[in-house]
Design brief:
6-stranded antiparallel sheet, Double-stranded beta-helix, 255 residues
Length: 255
């Protein structure tokens, strides 16, 4: 199934939103709960499956939904369709501060592998699935476990990333990155987990025990502030012991 040809605009700087413009009859598929607003004539339906295979039976839909449950995602996706006679818009935003990466799948080999919670929305016809990493090291230490998400098709898809987004192009090269900072990569990039240096570097280096190693030719997308890292800082800065907030007295003194 060919993907619908949707138009879009990225709005904002560091806390972005993507506004999708739908022609009459066009549909965009989004992660449940990501919609910010929609204009008149936009109809939305919550469904099992991504709609990329209109002939898929109930058992196929149940199998796809079961895989999404296994990854911790909602078993449903939401389909937004323009039922009117004029172009209409619908907006989607990420659930945490960061940026949205637009991907023309037709220009990146028609397949992207990304973190399982990176998907935001895509043109109808995009196949949204999960993949299991074949290497035991990546499964045990890769941050995202054995499970990564795949987006396949020939239309536009949008993924979300925390902080700033860095796009790297590899030409038969190797790139090493913090496992949490890896957002996605094109399907022809080889991905594995390697130990972060010697024993002393692993224990005292502060960069984690393992790094993601990406090799080959293609695109890699990284994020400067993974949500897990931001959450750790917030938890560490929160008042401890369950008492009342003592304020930011520090060296200045309490008020």
């Amino acid at each position: 199934m060919r993907s619908h040809e949707i138009d879009y605009q990225i709005i904002g700087a560091e806390m972005q939103l993507v506004e999708i413009t739908l022609d009459p009859g066009e549909t965009v598929v989004a992660e449940a709960g990501s919609m910010t607003y929609m204009e008149q004539d936009i109809r939305f339906d919550t469904r099992m499956g991504d709609g990329s295979d209109p002939d898929q039976g109930i058992m196929g839909k149940l199998f796809s939904a079961g895989k999404r449950v296994f990854t911790g995602e909602s078993i449903f996706t939401t389909h937004f369709s323009n039922d009117g006679n004029a172009r209409r818009r619908v907006g989607f935003a990420a659930p945490y501060p960061g940026n949205i990466v637009p991907l023309d799948l037709a220009k990146v080999g028609q397949r992207i592998v990304c973190q399982k919670d990176a998907f935001l929305c895509a043109a109808l016809g995009t196949k949204i699935d999960i993949t299991f990493n074949r290497r035991i090291g990546a499964g045990l230490f890769g941050g995202e476990g054995f499970i990564l998400q795949t987006l396949e098709g020939d239309g536009m898809a949008f993924i979300q990333a925390g902080g700033s987004v860095i796009e790297k192009t590899l030409n038969g090269e190797t790139l090493r990155a913090d496992t949490g900072c890896l957002v996605g990569f094109s399907g022809d990039i080889d991905y594995k987990i390697e130990r972060a240096g010697g024993l002393k570097s692993m224990i005292f280096g502060g960069e984690g025990l393992f790094l993601a190693t990406l090799s080959g030719t293609g695109k890699v997308w990284l994020q400067s502030l993974p949500f897990s890292r931001m959450a750790d800082r917030i938890i560490a800065a929160a008042p401890q012991g369950g008492g009342k907030n003592q304020g930011e007295s520090g060296l200045i003194g309490s008020s």
